[in-house]
Amino acid sequence: MRQYQTIKTKYPDALLLFRVGDFYETFGEDAVKAAAILGIVLTHRNNGGDRTELAGFPHHSLHTYLPKLVKAGQRVAICDQLEDPKLTKTIVKRGVTELVTPGVSLNDDILNAKSNNFLASIHFGERLLGVAFLDISTGEFFTAEGSLEQIDKLLQNFSPNEILISRAHKNEYNDFFGSRFHSFFIEDWVFQEDYAKETLTSHFKTATLKGFGVSHLKYGIIASGVVLHYLSDTQHRRLSHITTLKRVAEEEYIWMDRFTMKNLELYQTGEENAVTLLQVIDKTLSPMGSRMLKRWLALPLKNIERIRQRHNVIAHLSNTDQTLIKLQNSIKRMSDLERLISKVATGKVSPRETIQLKNSLEALVPISQALLSSQFPALEELGNKINPCEEVRNRIKEMLQEEAPVNIIKGNVIAKGYSEELDELKALSHSGKDHLNKMLQRETARTGISSLKIASNNVFGYYIEVRNTHKDKVPEEWLRKQTLVNAERYITEELKEYESKILGAEERILHLEQQLFSQLVVWLQEFIIPIQENARVAAQIDCLCGFTQLAKENNYVKPTLNDSTELSIKNGRHPVIEKQLPPGEAYIPNDLLLNRENQQIIMITGPNMSGKSAILRQTALIVILAQMGSFVPAEEARIGLVDKIFTRVGASDNISMGESTFMVEMNETASILNNLSDRSLVLLDEIGRGTSTYDGISIAWAISEYMHEHPCRAKTLFATHYHELNEMATTFERIKNFNVAIKEVKDNVLFLRKLVPGGSEHSFGIHVAKMAGMPGQVIRKAEKILKKLEKSHSSEELTEKLQTIPNDLQLSFFNLDDPLLERIKEELIHLDINTLTPVEALMKLNEIKRMLSKNKKASS
Length: 860
Description:
MutS, DNA mismatch repair protein, Chain A, domain 3, Nucleotidyltransferase, domain 5, seven-stranded mixed beta sheet, alpha/beta
């Protein structure tokens, strides 16, 4: 127990699994936690008079219990016996061999094949934040720096399983990021620039970090250094598979904040059993492809050339079925190359996984041939990046048995003919066993005991067992060793002699196989970089084949991307909803046109359940799919490059943070209005509905006016219940009214789901309540109240009042009859802001300020 306490003191934050003989034991508080999480028995024992809680499980069940502990958010320190108990007379030497945490694991039972397992680190700098993401199971390492909002977005994109933060910034982190992620706080001294640079350059064996293009990211470097320090701290020091550090260049990808990603349900959804976009579009066949697709979805491109290249590959593969089928069949044969080579680097690869590595490299050969013979430049380029690794494949093939076991202790790992010494030992072992069989036959004939058998156990080794009914026939030279209820066990000189031969050979075989396999793993580590590159190429091909399959199965078309700011979709469909429709029911497609010249804002009215939100979402999803490089669900799509997508869709209280639905709505809308660009796509759904009607209409009107008057002229879809907003189209030239058509038949309403020009007059909310099964009494009462309200509150009056309010977004003081203001007006009108530098602008502002202050003094 003293030994346990000493080790536990070094890992106070971890749950310590302490190896005692054939069991992993936990003690004290750890035992209470482990018993609750694992559902195992909690007992007690007395240690020197102290009563200590105890819970344990057999060591061979580690792979069953470890994932449960880690998934429950525990950091688990695995303490093993570091020497053979047979070889020591004192207490067995023990030590922690691995610290497994939610963000640091190579265990297949903990990892999800289709998702990365990122460990993140955040450094709070003076102005900006630095962030790093590392997946130890694949070797992928990323860094970036930016504002709180940018880092928040990246956390949403990468979904880390664990985040490291300095203890000094615990409150700041909790205030902004809350408890959405599993976090671990470490000492402040680790977050030092010099220490981080030294840690990184020492790992990569370089003098500087310039070669990675990250040397200017001071805070990003600190965050990256912290991640590597933490790996060393958790006993993960074999990291040769982490070969590069990549910058996540925010400027290369569409900006989507976390509200947008949540609202569009790209790969997460708050609803149980709801289907995400990722589930619909993921047609990949390998774990590497699935993980890459997730990243493509989180970071849609802004580079037209790269997007077009992906579109052209899909178009080519759509027209060459044979190539597509050949590529897909080969990808299906591949295991997780990325994680296999990481296990080689960390020395945790099993013989069976090494065979899987060889088979995966062999599956790349026909892929390479198909790409190089495709006569299509983009595919030939990918084919040239594949390294056949022939030397690796041949070495594994000649060295390992094809049916090699998972655990090397099981034996039969090294192939026949590879090692002469090993083959001789195996022959000796087998001939010894043959000799035992012959001995059994000989002794059975000599003694006449038909039920004679030769077996072995750990206590006596090999023995001859005789049932009690035949014990009078036992020869005198046999030596009795054990008496059982129904039988006696004997040994002979001859048996002992062969036992030492067989056991000696088997022990030597096991040692030699382990030695040869270890040599192979060390040799394989020289090929980490080419195999990682092969895995990346395979993942890309898998994603592009998946996009091709998606387009063929669902009738998607190739979009046209250009440098304009227009968005034109003909017969667009919602990729997720169309897959959820009952068999035989067709999705009703819609046309949509947005531009910055004459149709900047579309005001969509229509009743609940008519499909307003679906039209908003499908527009964003079509843009995202197009800029990911996929074909899109439409008859035709012309997309001027979009750089930011903002959505304010649906209502959700953030009760845990003490925010109401309306507060959440206003926070999200404020974030949109403060970050607009001229290539933004903005989707607003029911803004203002979280407050009173007049409040809501006022806010919605003011937001729409702001969007219209803002110099960015961001393309906007605004779905609303407030029919009063339809009047804005008469005052603001780039606001156009559309509604989702319905058809009234007697007391019923049919939803036609078609977007048509013009505003809608009614909400049909009471009709929807009736469809939901509301009691008739409630429906009748609601209809009476509605008629009364419609008489007393004329919406025409409200609209007239809203239109007469002066437009504060214009500089209305120029209407005043003041010579000084007229002078300032003239100054501003003749100012060429396109050629004005920031310094000149500040000087001009200062000049106007002086003019106004002089005028103020003169008047006083």
